[in-house]
Design goal:
Elements: H1 2-7, E1 15-18, H2 23-31, E2 36-39, H3 44-57, E3 66-69, E4 72-75, E5 80-83, E6 86-88, H4 92-103, H5 111-118, H6 129-141, E7 150-153, E8 157-160
Parallel strand pairs: 1-2
Antiparallel strand pairs: 3-4, 4-5, 5-6, 7-8
Helix pairs in contact: 4-6
Length: 169
């Protein structure tokens, strides 16, 4: 299956998780197109680290160089953001946060995911780092513009979307 996907130029990251542990099996899996290979039994922390690495690595053909949500545009290689044609200056962390939200447009992202992806930290519910970062990002990206794009989903997290949050959630 993987070989067929690779021949069709599908560049989705693939991690083999298997009990096959010989060197020949590992080499064959990687030669077929796997990006990583993990043998059972494994430590869950190692699996998470490998998944994060694959997601961080990405692939040039997997992601567009421009992300657009309504009139908001992120130019990834240049680390530039514009909204309605107006340039917006963001810090590196603000850009990373906005990029994460834009790549997962419409998805509600929990604070724990944002903390691990943007700050590479385990989330502590007593910290307001995420809330402060979102507030600062909103001030730059949303306050002077319509429609509002950064939404809070109470008790769940944040999302970037043109559609407002349904309060019935």
């Amino acid at each position: 299956i993987l070989q067929s996907l690779r021949e069709a130029e599908c560049q989705t990251p693939v991690l083999f998780l298997t009990a096959r542990d010989t060197v020949d099996d590992r080499v064959k899996g990687l030669e077929l197109g796997a990006d990583d290979y993990l043998v059972k039994p494994f430590a869950f922390a190692e699996l998470l680290a490998r998944i994060r690495t694959l997601l961080r690595r990405g692939s040039p053909s997997t992601f567009s160089e421009l992300l657009k949500v309504a009139d908001l545009t992120l130019d990834l290689p240049k680390h530039r953001v514009t909204r309605a044609g107006k340039k917006i200056n963001l810090s590196h962390k603000e850009f990373c946060l906005l990029e994460l939200l834009a790549r997962r447009q419409g998805e509600v992202l929990p604070r724990s995911l944002i903390a691990s992806q943007v700050w590479d930290m385990n989330f502590d519910s007593d910290t307001n780092v995420i809330d402060v970062a979102i507030r600062r990002l909103r001030a730059k990206v949303d306050d002077d513009f319509e429609p509002k794009l950064i939404h809070t989903v109470r008790g769940m997290g944040y999302k970037l979307d043109v559609e407002p949050v349904d309060e019935a959630l």
